[in-house]
Amino acid sequence: MSPFPHSQALFEVAQTVIPGGVTSSIRAGARPHPLYFERGEGPYLWDVDGNRFVDYALGYGPLILGHAPAVVRDAVSAQLERDLTYGSQHRLEPELAGLLVEIVPGAEQAIFATTGSEAVAAALRVARAVTGHDLVIKFEGHYHGWLDGVFASTGFDPQRSGPVDRPIAVPATIGMPESSLADVAVAQWNDLGSVEAILAAHASGVAAILCEPVAVNGGVIAPVPGFLEALRRVANERGAMLIFDEVITGFRLALGGAQERLGVTADLAIFAKAIAGGIALSAVTGSRGVMAPIADGRLVHNGTFNGNPIAMASGVASLRHLIDGRDRIYPELDRLGARLAAALTAASPRLTVRQVGPIVHTAVDEPDDVRTIRDRVGDPDAHARFIEALLGRGIHATPRGLWYLSTAHRDEDIDTTAAAAAEAARETLG
Ligand SMILES: Cc1ncc(COP(=O)(O)O)c(C=O)c1O
Fold it and tell me: Strand (E) positions, 126-227?
């Protein structure tokens, strides 16, 4: 019998009418089974069994202001009174684009879509249009959404992934046409030689070098000093676009994202998740020159819900809140991230904790110096048991060990988490 009986019952019903019972495959990994939630407020989530959790999953990233933030709710409510969608232009579009231009390094213009996956597709289309080349270099362990063409080598498979310095593009799902990976080459994160080898093998040209500027999905693996600068340099030398997928890092590592925090400016930057505090919205920013094919109508970027007023209202409200509070908010998010990382590190010598600002990652028995996803040799089963034991103690983190802090988390939440983590580690890690 599950300790979450109402969730379990709902999950059983769901599996009869939804394949696998969940609406995003990654959620199926939750143990003992996916939970059903009813309400959220600030750093807390309540499930259908009446349990309260300190939440570090934050909707997989959007909820940088915590659950149900008043600023976003008020802005959305005000827009709901006016209309749900226009399918046409409205004042909030240039307002939000203007805010992005103000805060995102290298942004002179922005386009909008609904999900991160779509924004990645749009950015790649722009890069291919501008350069006239097709090949995109991505990195092993980096995730750029689920669409054909980039959904490859998001993990490491010893049977199929190839040698460390020459990784092979491995489809991350069945059902993608083999041809969809014809224009993708996979490089090794933190290994410039692997990028240079691909560039040398494609002398005619490359459209883009695409990366998460911190490899968050691969386990929060930071770029080694100088690596992003080197990518910038080789992209310039070879006329390729450098694209930062800031879907997670945007508005989180700094107001201007990883570009601001790490001091390297890409040609195109992709945003989603935290851009709108909990409503689906994504964007791509770049210079006027890079965006010119859209402006002159040769490059088509469509979308029924692009720029829809509910999403734009939430985006404007959320970003204005972050802009107004930037001097207070970002140091505080960093401080809380460091406190959480310290608490988790203290919970067990077996826990491997990596942290960049308000993004924390836990694993079990991994080496201290992880530079690529292949270095992550540890004990994922033990980690899954640890996360499950935390759930039973009112702490909700993602099954794969990603923890996010929001502006709603307080020191007392970290203290509660520290005590629960120590207990859960004693129970599951010895
Ligand atoms: C770095 C990164 N890029 C793209 C995506 C895809 O975004 P979405 O799930 O909104 O399609 C994600 C989602 O987790 C992501 O983490």
Answer: 136-139, 184-187, 208-211
The residue among 257, 324, 247 whose CA lies nearest residue 281 is 247
By C-alpha distance, which of 374, 109, 106 is closest to 218? 374
C-alpha to C-alpha distance for 182 and 82, rounded to whole angstroms: 46
Residue 312 near residue 335 (C-beta atoms within 8 A): no
- CATH number of the structural domain 70-324: 3.40.640.10
pLDDT digits (tens, 9 = 90+) for 366-378: 999 999 999 999 9
pTM: 0.98
Q: Which CA distances in Å does 212 have to 130, 189, 220, 242, 310?
A: 21, 10, 10, 11, 28
Pocket flag, ligand 1, residue 115 (CB < 6 Å): yes
Fold (topology level) of 35-64+327-429: Aspartate Aminotransferase, domain 1 (3.90.1150)
Contact partners, residue 355, CB within 8 Å, separation at least 6: 220, 337, 338, 340, 341, 361
Q: What is the pLDDT of residues 50-73, one digit of tens each?
A: 999 999 999 999 999 999 999 999
138 classed as catalytic: no
User: Is the Cβ–Cβ distance between 250 and 184 less than 8 Å?
Assistant: no
Ligand 1, pocket-test mutation among 22, 26, 136, 144, most atoms within 8 A of CB: 144
Structure tokens at 71: 């600023």
